[in-house]
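Annex B. Sample input.
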Amino acid sequence: MTHVDIGLIGLAVMGQNLALNMNDRGFRVAVHNRTTAVTDVFLAGPAAGTGIVGAATLDDLVNLLEPPRRILLMVKAGPPVDAVISSLLPLLEAGDIVIDGGNSHYRDTIRRTGELEAHGLLFVGAGISGGEEGARHGPSIMPGGSPRAWPAVRDVLQSIAARVADGTPCCDWVGSDGAGHYVKMVHNGIEYGDMQVIAEAYDLMRRGLGLGHDEMAEVFAGWNRGRLRSYLIEITAAIMAFRQDGAPLVEKVLDAAGQKGTGRWTVESALQLGSPVTLVASAVFARIVSSLLEQRAAAATALGGPAPIVEGDRDEILSDLEDALHASKLVSYAQGFMLMQQAAAEHGWDLDYGGIALLWREGCIIRAAFLDEIRNAFSRSPRPANLLLDPFFAEAVNAAAPGWRRTVTRAVGAGIPVPAYSSALAFFDAFRTRRLPANLIQAQRDYFGAHTYERADHPRNEFFHTDWTESGTGAASGSYQA
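Annex B, continued. Sample output.
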């Protein structure tokens, strides 16, 4: 029997493309799909003429693999992953490795790592970014899980990953149990934010300035040659220029944005950890508002507002808009790394933040020109507590701030929603404010609920309660941090 190097379960588009990618890199691959006909069509079609072999059953797949067996799951996140793992468990031996390449929730990955290790197996939760094209020709891969699995899967994962100009693969070990999928989740949250800030620029150009699609394509293409160079800006220029039946196709696309959950998971984790990931939250809520099509149609008639027109010098407005987009992106990345730092402390992960930025330089959806600067920031000693405190990022945001403020002001005056620019700016202003009005909130909480407060003229973690009405018992409700 001819043995193979790795098995792959799940032949949707991502699974097919990863199988072809591994084959191209010289690995012998066996594939299995629950619906056998899907396997047959793949082998007769895209995989025809390759060394990829099919396995009709999981038993067949396992028997084709050399121990320690390596099996990559490319199935829908959630219960389907657990179902496949349950079916595999009786067939595997100690030391065999299961790799989940889907968009699984990091807490599921933490649980699965423990469960498989209890059976003597090893588990890897590998976040994979880059979509169909990335899977076929080189994605960004963020593996975590059982540390002992990394030496056994490193050759495959780094071989199929995207590479930067110097040949470095955009794949390296992230950390234990759920670390890889957590970093992929934050990547996707930042992706939500990036897409929203670009959409707000499009809306301001289209409605506010009345630019045509060829003009907008030219603006985005120009931005892609400078500091905003990134995959999403690049494809936005292409989308603006695309025509169907002589008309811009983008205007025929329904304005109701979908989401698969990773952005929401990012916001939920931020709330649980008390991390202010405000731009991603605004992007998630903006998608939710976009889905209210019937209500928005009614509100467009019932609710008044200014004409969505931005007046002034076009070049100045576009320059300010570029500043707003750039500054908001920098804030979003800073917030994302804040969240990862807090999650690492919570879960005991030793994350290499500069290394994570390097994983995102090629192959992934949020690849951007300034990721090298993030690596540089975390390479400095002492490491900045927040990216916005690094000299490069502080200088960049400070330089962009005036145009950023003018952009938000123009948008508000024209009634054009810019939730991402606005929330990022509000965070920036709060973050740079030495004394916020939260002292009043604490006084209110103590007044109506005896929740206690700390004093600015005393050391931290000393709590006080005042009988504000001078008619109570003076008893406090106890202190807690949220």
